[in-house]
Amino acid sequence: MRRAIELGRVGALVRKTGGPFGAVVVKNGKIVGEGHNRVLSGKDPSAHGEIVAIRQACQKLKTHDLSGCVLYTSAECCSMCYSAAFWARIGRIYYAAHHGDALRYGDFDDRVLEREIRKKPAKRSPRCTPMLRDEALVVWKKFQKLPDRARY
After folding, report:
1. Which of 31, 37, 88, 105 is exposed most, by the fewest CB atoms within 10 A?
2. Contact, 119 vs 126, CB < 8 A?
3. Residue 10 pairs with which residues in a beta bridge?
4. What does the alpha-carbon distance between residue 91 and residue 70 come to, in Å, rounded to a whole number?
């Protein structure tokens, strides 16, 4: 956890690449991925510390499946980072600061996103509008029949 906090400190206060968010992915007691927020420096809204650490761990371990790994993060995960950890099959997440701390000390407000996600797609901002479903389902049905299709 101290490494995650230090990465957040360096990213935010020294390199000024984004907010004070750092993270490490650990497997069998060893760090296999680490990162700090690079949203501003990379001009990439997905470059949260957790995402950077998860990507690095996946590359190092040569897999998308991080089962058996633990995520340590300097702050409670936002929805995107939690989702990435979930899809990577990370088994446990430890965090230091809470959502309320991020709001109080940094104006990072996940509540707006949480409210939007709970709305029906047509009521969300940005607006979500379905189209060409039948055409897309042709591909999905063919994919389903592939014996060697990608499996997650």
Report:
1. 105
2. no
3. none
4. 6
